[in-house]
């Protein structure tokens, strides 16, 4: 053993390179360094670059294993030569620590059962080095290879100029601002606006398959700044899906889509000016998390025989949505329904008149509290299709559920004006899963989703009557109607209601002009604040100066941007675990190097099994090792204490004996 600080410092250099690499990798991941759409270096060579990093990670692992071996062997040497010795089972731990099996080996347990002076320290060091040997390699590879994923790349809170109770209400009622919406107009804020888009997309010729109706999964409705993707699933004849029991529709609110488009334009402009790594990306997403309307409809159909009495049977939405058992019925029967007797004479007369020959298909909305309670719905409706040709008149009793679950509305870099989004797992989950209350539209307001229109077929046409005709359910020039007409009616009601509800507060807008932080003009603060700090990864900051009094009258939402590209990041449990492992290795190295340099103790001998074997060969035989030539099968052998002594200037290994001539520091031996 050498006792010289200078020599100890030189021998500690073996730890500098692997520990330095560890610190560098941890730093890169902690600062969330964004690299761009591809790795630095020659273009279009990312697979080769990643393979090179994997190779470098393996070299780093070997360096760390060598470093850990030096640390462990140094303390074993010191205990053998200058201490009170160690159990025989711990003698070769410096060569075997990188095999995880050492943790349950007889050698280690022999050292555990033996009582010796520095047992806690050396056993702890063996276990720590073994665990690190197992984990430093994967950890290095994990942190050295940048990940290709979506990364948070800025954003800002923003405010809509209306209260939350107005934007996301518990009920929707009629207002004087809608009075003109019962006349033909081009006002996009009217609940029935864009009904032609609904009609053309939902009831295209390709929607009919063997007489069974199937709506398209998604189509776009247009606003002034953006198009919004309306998702709709019609009840089908494939009962393996939950939505076979119902028809669902959802679409982001218009003011959410408008805000995304405006803020996405700001973010893109800021990135173009700063010209940092965020400029290079494979794709990015602009997102806002907010409440989003979800409409669920279930109708039952009834054909009318002359002189028969009308009965009204409405589905119970809770039972319809929750008790689906996946049986292979073509159209599942209702799990539960309610027979309800309408008592309002005006409603009864209106429905009776609508069934007469010459009438148009019509909707009769019901918001009767007792019926809503019994059907556990937000709104009810009776849809009437009068007699035509050889077909009897029919009517449909519909239960409607409207809720506002959370959803993330998004647009992409290349489709900035196209906003889409839906509640998580919206096809498999009901409002009971989302744990959100129902939204209650009034019957008076619902009249506006099927406003009168100008039609060549009839001067008294409504949106509903036109769509029923398009859906081949009335006045259709064919030998037969489509099968399961209730599915068509459900789809019409779901699309009309979701379109109208999503246009609530159509004129609400983001507080932008006059509130953006633009001073000084040559370097406006909003450009740096909407991006992450240091142009790497992470959230942005508030880019608006809005008085608190105005904030109190507005609704705050959060705008986020995610970039798809390569980055070093500490996000994720695996990355955090890898950082902890490499920092633990670095801490062990730091403690050992500091202690070694401070005390001056170091040695470069007995670092290999062959050197220890040579020492054993030159030592006197120990009787306690009899019958071990064919292998060692008992822990007691590994409990034997071994130490190094001096005999006539030569070192020898002795067992269970009192040391006679201790090894001296800085002394050469044979």
- Number of strand elements: 24
Q: Could you tell me how far the N terminus lies from the C terminus, measured between alpha carbons in angstroms? A: 13 Å
Helix content: 25-40%
Count of helical segments? 21
- If you compute it from the alpha carbons, what radius of gyration comes out, rounded to the nearest whole angstrom? 38 Å
Question: Stretches where pLDDT falls below 50 for ≥5 residues?
Answer: 320-334, 477-481
Largest sheet: 8 strands, mixed
Determine the structural class based on helices, strands and strand pairing. alpha+beta
Shape: elongated
Provide a brief overview of the structure:
With 670 residues, this protein is an alpha+beta fold. It has two domains: 2-33 and 46-146 and 571-655, no CATH class; 163-253 and 292-502, no CATH class. The two termini are 13 Å apart.
What keyword list fits this structure?
670 residues; alpha+beta; 2 domains; eight-stranded mixed sheet; five-stranded antiparallel sheet; 21 helices; 24 strands
Structure notes:
- With 670 residues, the chain is α+β, with helices and mostly antiparallel strands.
- The protein has two domains: 2-33 and 46-146 and 571-655, no CATH class; 163-253 and 292-502, no CATH class.
- It has 21 helices and 24 strands.
- Strands 8, 9, 10, 12, 15, 16, 17 and 19 form an eight-stranded mixed beta sheet that branches.
- Strand 6 (208-209) and strand 7 form a beta hairpin.
- 41% of the residues are buried.
Explain the layout of strands and helices.
Blueprint: E1 2-3, H1 5-11, H2 16-30, E2 34-36, H3 46-81, E3 86-87, H4 93-96, H5 106-113, H6 119-144, E4 147-160, H7 164-167, E5 171-172, H8 195-202, E6 208-209, E7 212-213, E8 218-222, E9 227-233, E10 247-250, H9 254-274, E11 283-291, E12 294-303, E13 312-315, H10 317-322, E14 337-340, H11 345-354, E15 362-366, H12 369-375, E16 379-385, E17 394-403, E18 406-412, E19 418-419, H13 431-434, E20 440-441, H14 443-446, H15 463-470, H16 485-502, H17 525-529, H18 548-552, E21 555-567, H19 573-599, E22 601-602, H20 609-617, H21 635-639, E23 641-647, E24 650-655
